[in-house]
Every structure is written in C-alpha cells, then in structure tokens.
Amino acid sequence: LFLAEFRTKQDHDLFICIYPSYVNCKKTLAEGRRIPAETAVENPTCAEIRHVLTVGGANVLMENEMYSREWNRDVTFRGRVRVQLKQEDGTLLRHDRII
Fold it and tell me: Which residues pair with 82 in a beta bridge?
C-alpha cells in the first residue's frame, strides 16, 4: 500500500522521510547511511520499516519513490517511508507517541 497524497504543503511538512538506505548497515555514509553502522540493520525494506514504526504507534505513509543514491533500480529497493513528527498545529508529537 503506497500513500503519497498530501492535501497541502502544510500536511507534507508534518512528516519526515526515511529511505531504507538511511538505516542499512551495508551502505557507507557516501551511499546514504545516516546512522552509525553498529545501530543499523542489514538490507531493510520499506515494508519492514513501516511495520516497526506502525507497531510503535507512529503515523506512517509509504511512497513509491527511489532514493537518488541507490544504484540498484530493482523494485525491491524502491520506496520510502514518511513518519509524522508534528501535529497539525506545528508542535512536535510527544516522544512516547512516536515510538
């Protein structure tokens, strides 16, 4: 299920974007990893990221987009996850409601 429809730019700004490469221990920083390799996981998928965040209580959207640094264009590497971090009034969600 891919949802990418935001009603307004304000709706769009409530979410951050997570590509699987951001948390992939097999990627280098130059290839797009954004967290330490020791805390990253091996070859995560968008579905896995969505599942973990949903179980944690986060409001999550999936989009069928390709990360610009991903060299492999295979369909298994497509997708990104958007996670809501702000409420409609612009205030941050409470940390216990995100994960």
Answer: 17, 61
